[in-house]
Write a structure and sequence with these properties.
The protein is α+β, with helices and mostly antiparallel strands and about 60 residues long. The protein has two helices and two strands. The protein has helices at about 25-30, 35-50, and strands at about 5-10, 15-20.
Length: about 60
């Protein structure tokens, strides 16, 4: 049976591969993705605040 493979990059250091054989199976695997995304964002935001307590260096701020 064919496999569905989805690769998600949550930044430069986090990559998630999701595999399944049907759309419902993939949807079930992605059900917790929003919470995972919030957790990873919180972790990296905390890390960034610790590394750069005065904010990002000039010229390295993320473009909106």
């Amino acid at each position: 049976m064919p496999r569905i493979v989805i690769t998600l990059h949550l930044g430069p250091m986090v990559k998630i591969d999701i595999e399944g054989s049907s759309c419902p199976e993939i949807a079930e695997a992605l059900a917790g993705f929003e919470r995972l995304n919030e957790t990873v964002d919180s972790m990296f935001s905390d890390l960034a605040r610790r590394v750069f307590p005065d904010g990002a260096p000039i010229g390295e701020e993320e473009a909106s």
